[in-house]
Amino acid sequence: MSALSLSVSAERVCRQLDELAAFSDAPAPAVTRVLFTPTDMQGRAFIKRLMEDAGLSFRVDAAGNLFGRWIGSEPNQPAVATGSHCDAIPHSGRYDGTVGVIGAIEAVVSLKAAGFQPRRSIDVIMFNAEEPTRYGIGCLGSRIMSGRLSPEAAGELRDQDGETFETTRKSSGCLGKLPSVRISPSKYSAFVELHIEQGPLLEKQNLPIGVVTAVAAPAAFRVTFHGEGGHAGAVLMHERKDALLPAAELTVAVERAAMELGGKDTVATVGILDVHPHAINSIPSRAEMTVDVRDIDLQRRDLVLEVIKRYAAEVAQNRGMKMNLEMINADPPAKCDVQVIAAIQAAAEEAKLPALPMISRAYHDSLFMALIAPTSMIFIPCRGGVSHRPDEYASPAAIRGGVEVLARTLARLSHS
Ligand code: HGY
Ligand code: MN
Ligand code: MN
Q1: Is-above-0.90 flag for pTM?
Q2: What burial class does residue 49 get, using C-beta atoms within 10 Å of its C-beta: 0-12 exposed, 13-18 middle, 19+ buried?
Q3: Is residue 131 in contact with ligand 1, taking CB distance under 6 Å?
Q4: Which of 198, 290, 379 should be mutated for ligand 1, with most atoms under 8 A from CB?
């Protein structure tokens, strides 16, 4: 395929990223955009408009995944898909996920402007609820699409107010039945996701492109310790059953297990800790926490996971307290497809941008798309490797390079 002469407008992409970031429940530069909230609905309408302005035929599925299709000259062939997410965890940044949706639309616009015509159709996808904020589980849209989560289990997921996903999706205009969201493995010939690295490697090595060879295996669970509570002044220390204390012991044990039993790629985090009744002069009667454990090596991840779960039971028993533990997810790692990796490397070469093969420690919708299509990812550097923070930043040059490599990759894959 002779090298296409593409002109990618980083200026347009950055402007659109800023417009999208304005749909937020946190003051700028922070972004908060949680599934099916009014700001999320504004964001979804914005992406729909961008897809339609780019001449893509738009649809939304019963789970709320958005699709913009560029119909190829052989529409009956399996299509090529690309995309990412636009939801944002509380007080995070404006580039996580959004670069892979708005950048994919820009890739299509630049290919069209270059007179390119795809043989296979190209789908740009905005996956629903990649972040676990509302329903506690990440990649909700791509889990249902890939069959990793059944429509029944998905529909029954409840948010903090007890509202089910089934109710919320319908009241947000996502009609149809959840089983229709499932995508068969023959539908897509390849999937590529453009995403900020959310790590420091590319910037440290002053490289513009990463090609993802594997995505780490995420697991998460919720632990609740039940104590007795009581008056902070009246109850003597040896008479207490303070629910926060086993939670505190477990939090330190989570770090210890990852550092002592894991390897370089083992990470474990307590991201949520809620104490009830949350009063300065009341002994905690209940402590609820989440534990997130990941590793590129599945056996090692499961070893660390089991040690932490055993310790949770131990600390509760030692203090004579009840403990509930509820698994949220425990997913295998994704190995990326060699052909798709090769297409990205060839595209990077065509764009004269050096590319570094690397793993992804963060999870992405690619983790689930890899179950139903040959998959890989294109990473671009983000300042200081920072993400999930308001100061998350990707430069226009980095974005331009990523979009160009994505466009050239899509051109290759849609003619493969
Ligand atoms: O948590 C993750 O890895 C992703 O950013 N949701
Ligand atoms: Mn994220
Ligand atoms: Mn992301």
Answers
A1: yes
A2: exposed
A3: yes
A4: 198
